[in-house]
Amino acid sequence: MGDIELLSWNYKDTPELFSSLIKKDYQYFENMMESRTINKYIILITCNRVEIYFRPETSIAGTIEGAVHLEYPDSVNHLFKVASGLESMALGENDILRQIKSAYDLSNKRGKSDKFLSYTFQKALSVGKDVRTMTDIAHGKTSLASISLQIIEKEYGISAKKICIIGTGKMATALLNYLAGSGSTITVAGRNIDHSRELAIKHGAYYCGISNISELINSNQIIITATSSKQYIIKKEDYLNADKDKIFIDLSNPPNIEKANNIAIKLYDLDRIYSKALETRKQRRMEIKKAEDIVKNEFALYSNKINEMKSDEIISAFYKFADIIKENEIDELKRKVYLSDKQLETINIMMNSFTNKILAPYTNSMKTFVRNNEKYSYILKEYDTMLKKVLSNGKKVNAKE
Fold first, then answer.
1. pTM over 0.85
2. Domain 144-282 has CATH 3.40.50.720
3. What is the mean pLDDT of residues 346-359?
């Protein structure tokens, strides 16, 4: 099985294709991998990216249209940057760590991870935490919710405004937390009136359903959508005649608000918010550099550990190969002479000792060599290919091979 590779669709590199793919469910991407006989993978789905980290049996390059395909080491380097918040729309966002852990836990639960993917994702989570502890990259406004409200506060003001939040999930909760004490009048709207009521009561807000979108628009100055709906909640005809003081913020992917060809409409979708977020990146160049250095250093340590893990597998195959040869030779000996159980036990002990004494210095040297010479890790691939070929014949193996 090969090194970890990545298929990625995201808001930055594949925006048009991503908008359609984000409407697919987990099973869709799982079927995508299984149909290509890939059984070890972790699927990360967020509002800004769909990424599949996997270990292929054979190359899949060019077989999945539209995906950004990264091979090792670029694939794992990318994961470390994602975990660090360097690839997020909101630089340094913290929620991505929760999402990575959830993706890893789900893969484990479904039996789709292995020790290499597990170690890689555990390391990514550790790197993400180190970056946030050792730099100020996550200082200040780091979530889409906070950045969007910061934009509105700066350009229009929030105090004393009437604000409607459509949605009752994590993003809606974050918005309510940020709006606490703002002096605005807030209404929580959702498909499930019980969920809307529960969330609104916790934050001292009003609540309602979304059966009458026009009324929601007319009675509020700022309308924010933050749901997982695959369809438009607000269509362009719902707000084409809205007065010029209305502000629409769409924090959903796929979009919840259909765009209208009207420059007078103040609509902030993820693309527009991202362009504003780029200004934050410019202001934090030093912190980004620190984070990138941490990722680089931690990846070097990770790479050494992965090579050790690979060499352990190869060494295990060496001993398995030796054990097959031993069994072949004992079977041959038994055909020529009679051996009692006691004699067979003695011969087994002697041959095991013989195998250990012969292989130990060579396998230890290989581990040391690979650990200290990362760029020669291709040797492991050669050994792996050779031993798989030799062991595929089981007890019929020919020692001369």
1. no
2. yes
3. 89
